[in-house]
Amino acid sequence: MEPPLPPRFSTTKPPPSLLALGAEAHVYRTHFLTPSNPCILKYRPPKRYRHPTLDLRLTRHRILSEARTLVKCKREGVVVPGILALDAEAGWMMEEWVEGGTVKERLHRWRDMVKKQQQQQRGSVEKVGWEKVVELMRRIGEAVGRLHEVGVVHGDLTTSNLMLREEEETDVVNGEGGSQKNGIEEAGVTLDGELVLIDFGLAGQSVQDEDKAVDLYVLERAFGSTHPDIEEGFSEVLKAYGESYKGAKVVLKRLEEVRMRGRKKSMIG
Q1: For the CA atoms of 47, 51, 52, 54, what is the dihedral angle to 10 degrees?
Q2: Is the dihedral of CA 106, 40, 145, 203 positive or negative?
Q3: Is 38 strand, coil or helix?
Q4: Which candidate in 55, 87, 112, 156 is catalytic?
Q5: How many Cα atoms within 13 Å fall on the side-chain side of residue 268?
Q6: 93-109 residue pLDDT tens
């Protein structure tokens, strides 16, 4: 049985479809104004274990904080979903729908397809695949750098919270109107598309190098656990990040300290 919707959406036709059920929020796909305009509905339901007054205040604060962060990012040129509507008192917010897949999904599909291609033919498949991965790693580093440059830390940087917006495909006719695809892309797997940062529920505004370094550390650990086969490519993320804005190299130095603390904590347990 699906959890209850906010009262305002209980009679929406067609009804919102549940995409994710988190500890703090439920995420639905629905539409904004017309059925032809899909969007994301993020709802923070009441927590029965909290006092009603405190719960209302916390929910209102978190909805408004996330909305303000997204608006700031949008205004500063960071690629994030736009805010369409919200009701902080009722605990819900509607965001622009991003057509595409997460970086996590794409990297897993890409890895599986590369392995399949390698089994079928020997040659430059691995090289072609790795070049595409490196290109994506650099784009991630640039995107995170831009986010930090405007004074925002994400708080939960993982490949599940990075999306690749689908681009319209253009057929190549007589060498014009597009780029040649390699065998893996022809199989329907691509690492192209506009990179979009999503899920700013734990985000905050900060200019502290420590906060930015922790953001990078979380992303680094996520790559190590979720994509161990391409973990060595994470150096390209850091390289692109270091070139993305003036204070980035200071943050990378602080990252070394954060890593040391993380290792020490792991050893102590």
Answers
A1: -100
A2: negative
A3: strand
A4: 156
A5: 6
A6: 999 999 999 999 999 99
